[in-house]
């Protein structure tokens, strides 16, 4: 297992402050709070389902993860066969391989896997009375990861990365980072212009253009523009969320934060 979960990616990484998130869907929170099964690892980490027996084929897709006081919505895909029930948990730090972040119920045991079979944790059901007491005053929130990857480019060994607030739709809460892998620096933006041809981010040190059709250009002041290699986000999840350093110390509100 990885010491202190994925937050140990840097010896000096500090946990990022929790974002101010909206409450989860009221119906989902009610289902979890009043009748959902709670399982735990014995170390203060809990998964809460939206059904009393989620191992049935009638799983309603509701799943939360948290510390007992605050729970965040977990996005997962449920699959089953005669012997096994599997929840593939969306965690972009694991790339596109669904089995690298998954909860499995087999032989009456829940097992959480992070990254590979050498990093597994057993979760056991909490008695119903203890579960109801735990959840009575708990807060249920939307997914904790509040930023979405927007654009990624590279020139030599220098990366250019843009992310955006996950909500509301169409917002202009962008951040731009430039630098070497693991040492990205956020640029202070002076202006953002967006229209049908793309989006332009202007900073003191240069201008990044994200074009439509897809292209990326960096124009450092006062040098000539540089055409960047465009890197597809969905083929570089691990690079974006684990290796660039932009999210070092950030909790995603997912089991693999702690395992």
Q: In oligomeric terms, what are we looking at?
A: single chain
Determine the number of helices (DSSP H or I, runs of at least 4 residues). Answer: 3
- Strand composition percent: 35-45%
Q: Give me the strand/helix succession.
A: HEEEEEEEEEHEEEEEEEEEEEH
Low-pLDDT runs of 5+ residues are: 6-13
What is the mean predicted local confidence, pLDDT?
Answer: 90
Strand order of the largest sheet: 5-6-7-8-9-1-2-3-4-10
Domains, number: 2
What class would the helix/strand composition place it in?
Answer: mainly beta
Note the overall shape.
elongated
Over the alpha carbons, how many angstroms does the gyration radius reach? Answer: 21 Å
Distance between the terminal alpha carbons, to the nearest Å? 6 Å
The percent range for helix content is: under 10%
The biggest beta sheet is recorded as: 10 strands, mixed
Total strands: the figure is: 20
């Amino acid at each position: 297992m990885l010491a202190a979960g994925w937050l140990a990616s840097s010896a000096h990484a500090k946990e990022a402050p929790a974002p101010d998130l909206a409450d989860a869907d009221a119906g989902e929170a009610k289902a979890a709070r009043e009748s959902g099964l709670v399982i735990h690892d014995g170390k203060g980490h809990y998964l809460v389902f939206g059904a009393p027996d989620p191992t049935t084929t009638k799983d309603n897709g509701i799943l939360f993860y948290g510390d007992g006081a605050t729970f965040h919505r977990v996005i997962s895909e449920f699959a089953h066969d005669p012997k096994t029930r599997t929840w593939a948990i969306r965690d972009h730090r694991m790339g596109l391989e669904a089995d690298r972040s998954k909860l499995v119920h087999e032989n009456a045991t829940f097992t959480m896997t992070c990254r590979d079979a050498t990093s597994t944790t057993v979760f056991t059901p909490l008695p119903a009375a203890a579960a109801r007491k735990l959840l009575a005053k708990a807060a249920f929130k939307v997914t904790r990861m509040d930023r979405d990857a927007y654009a990624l480019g590279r020139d030599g060994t220098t990366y250019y990365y843009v992310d955006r607030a996950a909500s509301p739709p169409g917002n202009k809460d962008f951040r731009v980072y430039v630098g070497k892998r693991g040492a990205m620096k956020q640029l202070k933006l002076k202006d953002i212009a967006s229209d049908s041809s793309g989006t332009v981010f202007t900073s003191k040190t240069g201008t990044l253009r994200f074009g439509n059709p897809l292209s990326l250009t960096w124009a450092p002041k006062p040098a000539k523009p540089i055409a960047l290699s465009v890197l597809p986000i969905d083929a570089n999840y691990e690079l974006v969320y684990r290796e660039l350093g932009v999210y070092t110390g950030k909790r995603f509100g997912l089991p693999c934060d702690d395992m």
